[in-house]
Design brief:
single chain, alpha+beta, eight-stranded antiparallel beta sheet, three-stranded antiparallel beta sheet
């Protein structure tokens, strides 16, 4: 090939590469400006976002404040509760034990738990691990066994009673008096027939596997089973098999392990009421603290795992974790309109996405989704409990902006 032809070819390739890079930078700038504009609405104190694909993090940024009083900025390294997204780590931990040959998803829980657990309405129908993992066990959350019992305050932050709704004050008074419990202690008190908090209404009128009903207590029981089988605390198991392998440094189940300078203050209500730091006795169902940076590493691994390139589990384990385990139509019968099916502590949406959301009643809302068709994932986390219309609109505007960016990024790579 003549030298001038080689030079022209090199010049064309270089121009295309520069043009692609410029377009990508332009898209990032456009997204940043849009998010900055949305952030000025100020219904959300602070938030962080991330967009990933199956190879890398392609956008990550943070806006607003981690603490409104001190004007401390919310950063991608800011740490907050990720609420029920914590449950996805139970899914990975269960599949690790399946992979190790220590249990099967079909294993009856009474083959493992040292006391008998069954739905008193269906005593001869065993509850299996897969029922816990797909929220079809028939174990239900109630005010007596869950809402009043699982949280406890670990800071002396004063509650502004003038800003606090009356129905919240009773919860705050209860949580002030609660003490930390292990997963074992909580399960014994709640699910053992002679347990202090045992009630017949802790169980539904449906047989195990017959009805979808989201259950935090069921998730907590699954984590307790992991402790029994592995002979490790669930905290240590997840550190050893998830957090350390992924180099997740800004993540912890125990708030005392977190640099308080990196911890976001949580807010609730339209008046942006700051809430105290708290602990969670059923911590596996929603007590994990993480930064957007670390959660992005986690989502990146999950997408890789879906595509057979993961490092935490083998291909078969990832496939079984993401498999749709429920019969067609079961979640529709349960009035779960946004959920089409359930994997092992992962949800399948009606539009084909695989996801988990989180809502912390003491202040925090987190979405984490990925699209298995184009291998892009999104994270949006804010230190505010999104409930009223204005904050929800702002939250969803951010979420839609991330979706548009991820779609455009996919198109440009084709």
């Amino acid at each position: 090939m003549p030298n001038h032809v080689k030079l022209n070819k090199f010049f064309c390739i270089t121009c295309i590469a520069l043009l692609t890079f410029t377009c990508q930078e332009s898209k990032k700038e456009i997204l940043t400006k849009r998010l900055e504009e949305i952030a000025t609405q100020k219904y959300l104190p602070g938030f962080a976002v991330s967009v990933v694909n199956d190879t890398e993090i392609i956008y990550q940024n943070a806006f607003g404040f981690a603490n409104l009083e001190s004007k401390k900025r919310y950063k991608t390294s800011t740490i907050q509760s990720i609420a029920s997204i914590s449950k996805t780590t139970i899914g990975i931990a269960l599949m690790k034990l399946v992979e190790q040959g220590q249990l099967k998803l079909s294993t009856p829980i009474n083959d493992i738990v040292p006391f008998k657990i069954f739905n008193p309405n269906f005593r001869s129908d065993p509850i299996r691990i897969i029922h816990l993992a797909t929220h079809t066990s028939g174990i239900v959350d109630t005010e007596n066994n869950y809402d009043d019992r699982n949280k406890y305050f670990i800071s002396e932050t004063l509650i502004d009673k003038k800003k606090t709704p009356t129905d919240w004050l009773s919860y705050f008074d209860t949580w002030k008096s609660n003490k930390a419990l292990t997963l074992s202690e909580y399960c014994n008190k709640t699910l053992k027939e002679d347990g202090e908090w045992y009630r017949v209404d802790s169980y539904s009128k449906y047989k195990p596997g017959e009805h979808y009903q989201y259950s935090n207590i069921g998730a907590n029981l699954a984590a307790y089973i992991i402790e029994l089988v592995s002979d490790k605390t669930f905290k240590d198991f997840t550190k050893d098999f998830i957090f350390h392998p992924l180099s997740m440094h800004d993540v912890a189940w125990n708030i005392d392990e977190i640099d308080k300078n990196e911890l976001a203050t949580s807010y609730v209500t339209e008046d942006l009421l700051a809430t105290p730091f708290f602990g969670n006795s059923t911590y596996a169902d929603g007590g994990l603290y993480a930064s957007c940076q670390d959660l992005s590493k986690y989502l990146l691994e999950v997408i890789k795992g879906y595509n057979g390139q993961g490092t935490l589990l083998d291909i078969k384990s990832f496939e079984e974790m993401f498999e749709k385990h429920l019969p067609d139509g079961l979640t529709k019968q349960s009035n779960q309109k946004k959920i089409m099916n359930s994997g092992v502590f992962w949800m399948h949406s009606v539009n084909g996405s695989i996801y988990h959301n989180g809502g912390n009643p003491l202040g925090g809302t987190i979405y984490m989704w990925f699209n298995p068709t184009n291998n892009t994932g999104r994270i949006l986390m804010t230190n505010y409990l999104v409930e009223e219309k204005e904050s929800y609109v702002q939250f969803m505007d951010i979420w839609k902006a991330l979706e548009e960016y991820s779609l455009k990024s996919t198109e440009s790579s084709l």
